[in-house]
């Protein structure tokens, strides 16, 4: 039962996150669609691990190089998904969306 609750809460959190992403892009106040590139990272992140699960035999309990590489690539994709808004804020292509972010204010205050 605990697994079902975790799955439901993860899907609810993902749905809320996607809703806020769509609203942030679609509202006429902002009128910027650059943050939708984050959807590519959301789609790409589970692919390496799913491929490695198909390729690797799970009979042995030891660590496998294919699984380790898949976890490494998945981690890189997830970190890139967090880094893309920072790049957008630094390039100022999403100034309306990112001006209120704490990260951009911290960046501006530290580089005066």
UniProtKB/TrEMBL annotation:
Name the InterPro entries on file. Answer: Vps55/LEPROT
Biological process terms from the Gene Ontology for this record are: late endosome to vacuole transport via multivesicular body sorting pathway; negative regulation of growth hormone receptor signaling pathway
Q: Name one GO cellular component term.
A: membrane
One Pfam family of this protein, by short name?
A: Vps55
**Domain of life, per lineage:** Eukaryota
Sequence intervals crossing the membrane: 7-30, 36-56, 68-88
Its keywords, alphabetically, are: Membrane, Transmembrane, Transmembrane helix
The name this protein carries in UniProt is Leptin receptor overlapping transcript-like 1
